[in-house]
């Protein structure tokens, strides 16, 4: 299944590896911060509602 | 209905919430096949050998490195002229995505350049303008973090975005302006002579479309987060004043 890259295997695999790692990191950071901020907003709204 | 209605944060949250599942679906349906096609099912090129596989990550990343800055420019201009907060927050949300795209373009370009040009890096006009664009992205993000007042931060980063646009344009057209350096011309062109063969072009277009949908997905998610973060600040301020 794996294509034959010959002497360029390192170049190709490193390029794709770096890309996929950076994109995965960006997606993870986006989702983690999104969830954290959403939780913080909910907590803030609850607190203000309870405090009147 | 006016387009400016979407500048209302409540309207933006409602609309983006409805759009997100569709955009995520479109991302998966274009990005995955585009990358799999490019990586596994394209032939070795006569001129570049197997390194042609690198274009399926390098070209889309480079394309969006520039276009995201252009999107930030438009959003910044809307903020500076019409003072719509969502546009300033969208520009802020886009910057880390553009920074990552620029980094991918720089790293994959260097990895490709070593076997093809015999060097990791050359102070070539396009490479240099891309490096400066990357530094502009970092500067833009740092400026947002450095200023506490959101409106002042939006104003100053908006001006920085206008200045950086020079380098976004240079990154795109440097190879044409100076007609020198190592970097070749456009990979995709309307000119049949310059255009790459269909067997490489079709998966490349699919990858670019996939990167485009990925950008829209991340932009919507990040803008929604910025709107929520801004609301937290506003509520905290209201609490302090009560």
TrEMBL record, chain A:
Protein name (database record): Heme exporter protein D
Function: Required for the export of heme to the periplasm for the biogenesis of c-type cytochromes.
Membrane topology note: Single-pass membrane protein
Family: Belongs to the CcmD/CycX/HelD family.
GO cellular component, one term: plasma membrane
GO terms classed as biological process: cytochrome complex assembly; heme transport
Organism the protein comes from: Rhodobacter capsulatus (Rhodopseudomonas capsulata)
Entry's transmembrane regions: 12-32
Highest taxon above the source species: Bacteria
């Amino acid at each position: 299944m794996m294509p034959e890259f010959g002497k360029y295997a390192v170049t190709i695999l490193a390029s794709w590896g770096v890309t996929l790692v950076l994109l995965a990191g960006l997606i993870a950071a986006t989702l983690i911060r999104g969830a954290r901020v959403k939780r913080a907003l909910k907590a803030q709204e609850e607190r203000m509602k309870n405090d009147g | 209905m006016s387009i400016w209605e979407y500048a209302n944060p409540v309207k933006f949250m409602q609309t983006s919430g409805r759009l997100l599942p569709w955009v995520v679906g479109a991302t998966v349906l274009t990005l995955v096949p585009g990358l799999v096609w490019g990586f596994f099912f394209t032939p070795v090129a006569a001129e570049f050998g197997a390194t042609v596989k690198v274009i399926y990550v390098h070209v889309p990343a480079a394309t969006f490195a520039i276009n995201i800055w252009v999107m930030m420019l438009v959003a910044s201009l809307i903020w500076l002229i019409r003072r719509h907060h969502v546009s300033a927050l969208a520009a802020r949300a886009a910057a880390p995505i553009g920074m990552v795209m620029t980094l991918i373009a720089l790293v994959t370009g260097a990895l490709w350049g070593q076997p093809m040009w015999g060097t990791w890096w050359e102070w070539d006009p396009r490479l240099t303008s891309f490096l400066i664009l990357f530094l502009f992205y970092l500067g833009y993000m740092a400026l947002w973090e450095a200023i506490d007042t959101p409106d002042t931060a939006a104003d100053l980063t908006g001006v920085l975005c206008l200045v950086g646009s020079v380098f976004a344009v240079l990154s795109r057209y440097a190879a044409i302006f100076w007609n020198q350096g190592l970097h070749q011309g456009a990979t995709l062109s309307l000119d049949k002579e310059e255009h790459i063969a269909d067997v490489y072009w079709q998966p490349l277009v699919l990858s670019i479309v996939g990167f485009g949908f990925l950008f829209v997905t991340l932009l919507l998610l990040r803008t929604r987060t910025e709107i929520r973060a801004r609301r937290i600040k506003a509520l905290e301020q209201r609490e302090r004043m009560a």
